[in-house]
Every structure is written in structure tokens, then in C-alpha cells.
Amino acid sequence: MSTRKRLVIIIDQSGSMKAKQRMVLAKDAALTVLNTLTPDDYVTAIAFSTSPSFPPGCFGSSLAKATASNLQVLREWIRNLQASGKTMYSLAFETAFDCFVNSSSTDKGKNIILFLTDGEPSDDPSTKIYPSLIQGQQQMNNSVSILAYGLGTGISGNRNAKEVLTNIATENKGHFTIIKDGSKEKLNSAFGSYYQYFVTAIGNVALGKQTSQSSVMLKQFPNLAVNGRVDGKCSQTNYEENPWWRVDLQDEYYIMAVDISNCCNNILKNIEVHVGNNEIRELNKICGHINVLKDKENHIILCPADLSGRYVHLGVRGRNKSFSICEVR
């Protein structure tokens, strides 16, 4: 579920990003995040190598409202980025904090930097990078979280790079995550830390809310999927046609993501997630699908931008199907 975001996306476009389609992976990651934004949010992007650069138009060195037209400008600019040059972390972070400072008059929200890179910095962490972060946080009253994403073997096989990115994230209220080469299909899972940051900010609004499902098997009631625990006690329907589960959030929310957990030797297939203001699943919009959710797995679905609703529906289609879910957040 979503709260207002003030977001700076930093994309490494140094020469090493040409390797193994990492520039493509970084672009896909940035575009994935743009799809989570609503008109209440503020955003900009920075590409960095030897020096930083901005998108055209109203962005410059400040945040812009995440309107449809502004997001389209960002998408086109990101798609056209080319890799060349060095990997100067400090200049990118200094520029990002300038964007926050220059936008301090905009509506309040959660300040976050998404940092996407594939390599060890060209500038010195102790004398350049860490001091730039300390100074930036002082300007922003320590209100900015940094989520760092390392792309490919340039990070996973480099001890120094991992140490620097881990320090950047942990010292700035964030997380460090590695995205493997060629793992475009796993971007949603890799961006779990991004989603969890905003869930933590406002709490899990599904927790303890009113639930219902198409039928109840052996006292496996629907509320067991919003009790905050994955402990073997799950909701489950009878075997029937097109079984479903639903939570009533009791207010309309922008839905950024839905986090679903499974357990208990149960394999779920072809799950549909709908969001909207109607109690009938088919009259609401699709958030996304899960092809397979195995035992003890959880899966985060990032919903399309601007998707809002009071009801979140989960279910499967077909005859003689039972639907069981252990926790929905």
C-alpha cells in the first residue's frame, strides 16, 4: 500500500554498464519503479558517470510532480541513456541531495534515493563519498533513505564494491540488494526492499481488516490471511469453480504493491490480483498475476501506476479449484 514518495533515481551510466546488458537492466529497474508512482508523488532521475546529468524540461536540479506527462519525459530520457565514462558516486549523491534541498517547499513525504550501479566507485569512499552523504543528510535533517542495488557480477564478485554499497545503505536507513546478470524477470522480487520501505512508513493497512472468501474449508477462515503471521494457519476455500479471497481496506488507497505469502506444502498457480472499489472481482482492475507460488515462498506484485481501491481480491480460475493463502500485506 502506498504513501507519498519524494524519490530520486540515480542510474550508473559508466562504461562498465555496457557489459552483459546491465544498462538494459538498470533502465528496466528504473522504469519498474516509475510505474509505482502516483500523482501525489514527486520524482526526478540522475544519470552519472564522470559527471551527473538530468532529464530535460521541468526537472533540472529539483523534484517534479509525478504527473503522466512528467513520467513520460522521464521514461523517454531513461530509455535513451548510453554508457560511457567513470563511476563517480560522490557527484551523483551531492546532486541528489541538492534536488531534495531545492524541492523543500513541495508537499512532505518519504525521501528516498534509489541507487543503481554495477561497479566499484572511481572516487574514494572515505574522502569523497561518505563525506558527501553526511553533508547531504545534515542538510535534510537525516530524513533520506538510500536503497542501493548492485547490478551483476561487477558487484557480486567485487568485495570492495559490496562493502561500499552496504555501508552506504545501512548508514542511511536503507538496504543493499544484488540483482544478478540477466535476471530481468526477478526485478519485482529484487525491489522488495523498496516496497517494504513504504509499508514500514505507514504500516500494513490490510492487517486485521475485514475479509471474505468464496467458501470456507474446515474453519480455515479468510481473516487468517491478515493476522500478521505465517504460522501454518491459512485461509482456504472449498474445491469449487473460480474460488476467491478479498480484503476490505475500509478506505480507498493507492496500491503500490501486494505482498503474498504461502506455506504448508501448498503450491499455488495462476493467481490473479484485482484492485478496485467494487466487491465483485471482475469489475476491478488487474494489479498483476503470479504464475507459481511455492511452499514457504512470498511474492511481491508491483501494481500499475495510479491503481487505487478499497478492495484487494485474490483468486484462481477453473473448476474444482481450492484457493489457500497464508498472509497478504
From TrEMBL:
GO CC field: voltage-gated calcium channel complex
Listed SMART domains: FTP, VWA
Metal-binding listed as a keyword: yes
GO molecular function, one term: voltage-gated calcium channel activity
Keywords: Calcium, Disulfide bond, Metal-binding
Any matching Pfam family: F5_F8_type_C_2
PANTHER family, per database record: VOLTAGE-DEPENDENT CALCIUM CHANNEL SUBUNIT ALPHA-2/DELTA-RELATED (PTHR10166), VWFA AND CACHE DOMAIN-CONTAINING PROTEIN CG16868 (PTHR10166:SF66)
Annotated protein name in UniProt: Uncharacterized protein
Species lineage: Eukaryota, Metazoa, Cnidaria, Anthozoa, Octocorallia
